[in-house]
Specification:
247 residues; alpha/beta; Rossmann fold; eight-stranded mixed beta sheet; 19% strand; metal ion binding; ATP-dependent FeS chaperone activity; Mrp/NBP35_ATP-bd; Iron-sulfur protein NUBPL; P-loop_NTPase
């Protein structure tokens, strides 16, 4: 791995940002962006005085604007930095604010890296206690650019219980281990469906997959999230995430 990456750049903190937490899945379709939003909201709920930022690092498929009900173009401050949009008490930035909603982004790698640097360094983020970064699927250039250029407090891996999702979650865990980013834990999303009428629970995507992955990789399971609209599961997960030994 070291031979492939060569000499690593010096990690420079984002001004005014205390802790950066990456939310990754290495796979699309497991609810990672929804988990990122709910995790940020849960952190704000249990630490009301904290200032929380949310960065959508998925350049090609930004979904945070829709999830956060935001659509305006960011204004610039006197220093020429973009001012994050704010909703639900969260400071938010996404490539989705900078391009037309229906326009496809067809860029080569260097342009994507330039965009990521702009989202990291060209935004007036601070002061923030936590910056949650919703990572794109995969283990490629964007992931390496972020983990190699800024100090990261830790990462969270989101998966669903079925083996096809767990395969990529393993790759994501391996990637974070290779680049030296602490893994704070695993979130098992879509763990069970509870019928609103009868209360019966069904494991649509299988059962206990993330628990097995946790034992296999020695990465703690932060919690499981059912297919419902409640924020309670993420409040418990956020509480586990910021326990004193993980702060």
């Amino acid at each position: 791995m070291a031979k492939v990456m060569g000499k690593l750049p010096k990690k420079i903190p984002i001004p005014g940002v205390n802790q950066v937490i990456l939310v990754s899945s290495a796979k699309g379709g497991v609810g990672k962006s929804t988990a990122s939003v709910n995790l940020a909201l849960a952190l704000k709920h249990i630490q009301r005085s904290s200032k929380i930022g949310l960065l959508d690092a998925d350049v090609f498929g930004p979904s945070i604007p829709k999830l956060m009900n935001l659509s305006a173009n960011p204004e610039l401050n006197k220093q020429g930095l973009m001012i994050p949009l704010v909703n639900y008490g969260l400071h938010v930035m996404s490539m989705g604010f900078l391009v037309e909603e229906k326009k496809a982004i067809v860029w080569r790698g260097l342009m994507v890296m330039s965009a990521i640097q702009k989202l990291l360094r060209g935004v007036a983020w601070g002061p923030l206690d936590y910056l949650i970064i919703d990572m794109p699927p995969g283990t490629g250039d964007t992931q390496l650019s972020i983990t190699q250029n800024i100090p990261v407090s830790g990462s969270v891996v989101v998966t669903t219980p079925q083996e096809i999702a767990l395969l990529d979650a393993r790759r994501g865990i391996t990637m974070f281990n290779q680049v030296g980013v602490p893994i704070l834990g695993i979130i098992q999303n879509m763990s069970i469906f509870i019928c609103e009428k009868c209360g019966h629970g069904t494991h649509i995507f299988g059962d206990s997959g993330a628990e097995s992955l946790s034992l296999e990789t020695n990465v703690p399971l932060l919690g499981s999230v059912a297919l419902d609209r409640s924020l309670l599961s993420f409040i418990e997960i956020a509480t586990n995430l910021i326990k004193p030994d993980k702060a």
